[in-house]
Amino acid sequence: MILTLAVIFPLSSAFVIPLLHLYGSRGLRLFLPIMGLGAFVLTLAAAASGFGDYALAFFGGWPARLGVVFVADGLSSVFLALAAFGCGASFLYFYEQMGTGPWRFYVIFFLLQASMNGVLLTGDLFNMFVFYEIFSLAAYLLVSYSLTWQAVEAGLKYLVMGTVGAFFILLGAAYAFIATKTLNMAALAASFPQMPKATLIVIAACMVVGFSLKAGAFPFHFWLPDAHSSAITAVSALLSGVVVKVSIYSLIRVSLLFFGDALPSVFDVITVLGVLSLLGGHLMASRQQDIKRLLAYSTVAQIGYIMIGVGMGTATGIAAAVFHSFNHMLMKSGLFITAGRLAEEIKTRNIQDMKGLYYHRRGMVLAFTVLAAAIVGVPPLNGFMSKWYLVVASVEKRSFLAALALVFGTVISASYYIRVLSVFYTPGEGFSEHESRRPVLAIAALFSACCVVLGLLPFFTPIWELFVEVGSKALNTKDYIAAVLLK
Amino acid sequence: MTAFFAFVCVFLALTALVASEAEEVLSAVISLSVFGVLMAMVFVILQAPDVALTQAVINSGLVTSFFLVAYSQTQKPNLLEQKQDIGDGQ
Amino acid sequence: MGLLLLCLGIGWWLWKGVAAMEDPEFIIGPAAYYIINTAEETGAANIVAAILFDYRGIDTLGEASVIYTTVCGVAMLFSKSKYKRSSAGLSFIARRGVSFLVPFLLLYGSTIILMGHMTPGGGFQGGAVFATVTILLCIVFGSSFEMSRIKPKTKETIESLGGLFFVFLGGVGLLAGAGFLANTAAGFPRGQVGNFLSAGAIPLLNIAVGMKVGAGLSTIFYSMVRVLELEFGEQMSEVEGNDKN
Amino acid sequence: MIKISYATAIFVFCIGLYTILSKRNLFKTVIGLTIMESGALMLIVTAGYVHGGVPPLIPMEGQAVNPLPHAFTLTAIVIGASDVALALALVIKVHRRYKTVDLDKIRGLKE
Predict the structure, then answer these.
(1) Enclosing domain of residue B12
(2) Is the model's pLDDT at A249 over the cut of 70?
(3) Residue of chain D with shortest Cα separation from C57
(4) Which of A299, A284, A298, A285 is nearest to A247 (CA)?
(5) CA of A299: how far to CAs of A237, A325, A375, in Å?
(6) Cβ–Cβ gap C46/D3 under 8 Å
(7) Buried b (16+ CB within 10 A) or exposed e, B39-74
(8) Cα–Cα 20 to 30 A to A460, which of A49, A351, D85, D96?
(9) pLDDT tens readout for residues D31-53
(10) Would residue D77 count as lying in a domain?
(11) Contacts of C46 by beta carbon, 8 Å cutoff, 6+ apart
């Protein structure tokens, strides 16, 4: 019930908003915050129901073998919570800035949230493709929302790349269907090990290429910096924080469920892709002069970190990847919100023109500093913790090259974030003297406080064990198959 | 039946090639429309009437009209410039 | 040339993936169940419609939402554009011919939608036929004719209502405790297979999808037809002036 | 017959991919997307075909073909059409800025 509502409520909100707009805009002002809050609460409730045992929702009352089933387990719960917080922050930011005026934005936003929950919950490969397409279309539209020429061009680029990726996923699903005549993920996972090797390799390659294209991993990354830097601030935060993570979730789910037993070499490929995007993203980021582009390339690098964790294929690796995804949502959304707001206020995105910003916008720059320190990996903050666990996981798996890349990447990222911060703290003149409005400051402060808290929590509470449990549960495909198919 | 199917398939591949390689965008779009109709035929032969109906209506009807609209939209400035040229000539 | 070879290589490799599997002699998997039990469980004669609207109804809701997203996006992209000049349309004979044809096309579209649970067709195909009719009207009568008859506001309302109707029909199943989009399990009457009034909620869902798709696709077309953008306006009016001279 | 169909589907998919990768005209890119999608769809529909099957409509004489891929394909066709519509709308928008649809001349976002 709650799983269904987590998708249906935002979806029907998206259907209602045009009616409210056409027949009485006072209703829109009244209902929009309720809708945002409702979507947030329902998503969190769905996440809460997935911790512990498997939560299932059957559509039309048909068993999983016949119909479509929604499954919430630990992995999808963490990502649902991530999506809820990221979407909530982005919604708040946009609502604070624009009010209820641009109602089409909210329609697309709610469609994005509904389909995102759908991707995170569904237990059927084709259903995942359908939700994935709604979600991607909404993302392309959000990128080009501002209708500036950069945004439209970036949106087109994103659309072409994303659609090619979607068709690769569709091709992979077609091969899986040809081989097994079903597309339920649990049933597929059960019959994958008996498949001919050649077919298996084709499916694996299609899935990895498709999801890497959608996530923006290194050889397929070229749309990502344009899209993430050309969009408006709220959307940049949403894209870097949440949208990319959904692709990561799909990659984790599909690779563990289908290829965990049948074709373990997929994980080596994912590791290689991860290392490539880590190094490539950091090297490109260090050459950027535009602050949003710098942050976007940094996202590519962070995807590399997460993919290295996935590529380890162990419980620790998955746990570290999931933990880092969550942390990256906090850090990168916060960074995009602070940097985007600063850039909007002083009307430039060039780093060199931001000299002495600290002396005029203390609150925002302080929040930016904390978040940047977290993403570099300064010890007591959450970025350090997840990177530490990633290194531990790769050393456990004896892939020292990956561990070396992790450390080396951190050094590069430190160099370019220090470059930005040193510009901020060098005395300079020439900014208008008004501090950012309170709500934005509050969001930024909340995100940086979360970074500090999540960095300290593993010392006092068994939160890391929780993530390891999520990882080991995600690895245990037999339980998943049994839970879905036998009910 | 198989021979006929093979013939349709060869034709399908040819239209796809033409749609890909034609110099003129307009001929590529028309070729794409033919491609859509042939694809609908393939679906009929594969005993999928529902899919064939959808393919015929949506892919070779609506999508082609979208292509034509978009193409005419992008041609407009050039057309206007041509008209202007003629006007100047007079 | 290298790209061509690359693509052919990918093709060869995909072919090896297919060639490794045997052709099916008979149907296995959930489809075998559908073929045997559809008539009894859903009352629909068209098994594909039963799968689309009953067994896998959430896919169809998602599909309708995809169109909705596109419509919203295209309307958003062209929200600053305006119709400055209606295209002239075609000759008198063409107009007469089309106005004779249009009722039949509308009838055909409604038949496809309403008979979707018995014969090939359904909400998507019928909605697409409706959209085609509006496109035909635009071509033959000029772009302002259709605008004055069916306002964009009406289309948007129809589309949203279609979506809400779909969700509402699904919600009935949820309230009945049989799961979202449940059909006969939620108490919709099954009827006699092959009858017009049969298959429970499937005809209603077809109508909802038809409303959504028809209004949506025609909105996409009309948003794209909008000729001019504001920044472009001056140049155009100048040219129009030349035309008059 | 099934193998012929598979081969054609894969060939069509690869033509679509080649079109997207090699052509510099934005319309050609969108055409490539359509072709690629059709290839994938043909593959799925072929997966449901059995020799001597009849359409999955009750009453059936003989063995029906697999109706499940038909439902998938229907969904995917509509999704593909939406993708193409949005892509074309964006192409129109890009054209209004650059007055061209040639990718080589559109160099707004560099590096």
Answers:
(1) 2-89
(2) yes
(3) D71
(4) A299
(5) 11, 11, 10
(6) no
(7) bbbbbbbbbbbbbbbbbbbbbbbbbbbbbebbbbbb
(8) A49
(9) 999 999 999 999 988 888 888 77
(10) yes
(11) B50, C116, C117, C118, C119, C120, C122, D56, D57, D58
Q: How many CA atoms lie within 13 A of A217 on its CB side?
A: 26
Cα A140–chain centre separation: 15
* Minimal-distance CA residue of chain B relative to D5: B9
Q: Does residue D26 lie within any of the structural domains?
A: yes
Residue with tokens 């699904």: C170
D110 located within any domain: no
B17 touches chain C (CB under 8 A): no
Short-list D73, D21, D65, CA closest to D44: D73
Contact A114, A10 (CB under 8 A): yes
Provide the Cα torsion C50, C54, C59, C63; round to 10°. Answer: 70
Please state, in angstroms and rounded to a whole number, the distance separating the CA atoms of residues C204 and C192. 16
Q: Which residues of C touch D50 (CB under 8 A)?
A: 24-27
In this prediction the pTM is 0.92
Helix (H) or strand (E) holding B81: helix B63-89
- The pair of structure tokens assigned to C169 is 């029909």
> What does the H/E/C string look like for chain A?
CHHHHHHHHHHHHHHHHHHHHHCCHHHHHHHHHHHHHHHHHHHHHHHHHHCCCCEEEEHHHCCCCCCCEEEECHHHHHHHHHHHHHHHHHHHHHHHHHCCCCHHHHHHHHHHHHHHHHHHHECEHHHHHHHHHHHHHHHHHHHHHHCCHHHHHHHHHHHHHHHHHHHHHHHHHHHHHHHHCCCEHHHHHHHHHHCCHHHHHHHHHHHHHHHHHHHCCHHHCCHHHHHHHHCCHHHHHHHHHHHHHHHHHHHHHHHHHHHHHHCCHHHHHHHHHHHHHHHHHHHHHCCCCEHHHHHHHHHHHHHHHHHHHHHHCCHHHHHHHHHHHHHHHHHHHHHHHHHHHHHHHHCCCEHHHHCCHHHCCHHHHHHHHHHHHHHHCCCCCHHHHHHHHHHHHHHHCCCHHHHHHHHHHHHHHHHHHHHHHHHHHCCCCCCCCCCCCHHHHHHHHHHHHHHHHHHHHHHHCCHHHHHHHHHHHHHCHHHHHHHHHCC
The whole-angstrom separation of Cα A345 and Cα A359 is: 14
Residue D72 in any domain: the answer is yes
Contact C89, C95 (CB under 8 A): yes
Q: Name every residue whose Cβ is closer than 8 Å to that of residue A54 and which is 6 or more positions away in sequence.
A: A71, A72, A73, A479, A480, A483, A484
Residues of D (10-69) whose Cβ lies below 8 Å from B: 11-12, 15-16, 18-19, 23, 25, 27-28, 30-32, 34-35, 38, 41-42, 45-46, 48-49, 53-57, 65, 69
Task: State the complex-level ipTM.
Answer: 0.91
What is the chain D residue with the closest CA to C1? D22
Chains A, B in contact, 3 or more Cβ pairs below 8 Å: no
Its domain, for residue D72, covers 2-51+65-105
CA-wise closest residue to C117 among D58, A67, B90, A77: D58
Range of the domain at A372: 2-485
CATH number of the structural domain spanning residue D76: 1.10.287.3510
- Give the model confidence (pLDDT) of A41-74 as tens digits: 999 998 888 887 888 888 877 888 888 888 888 8
Q: Are A38 and A9 in contact (CB under 8 A)?
A: yes
Give the three-state DSSP class for C198. strand
User: What's the total number of domains in chain A?
Assistant: 1
C-alpha distances in Å from residue A14, one per residue of A145, B54, C153, C164: 16, 27, 16, 10
Beta bridge partners of A122: A70
Residue range C100-155, pLDDT digits in tens: 888 888 898 888 888 878 878 788 888 888 888 888 887 787 766 666 677 778 88
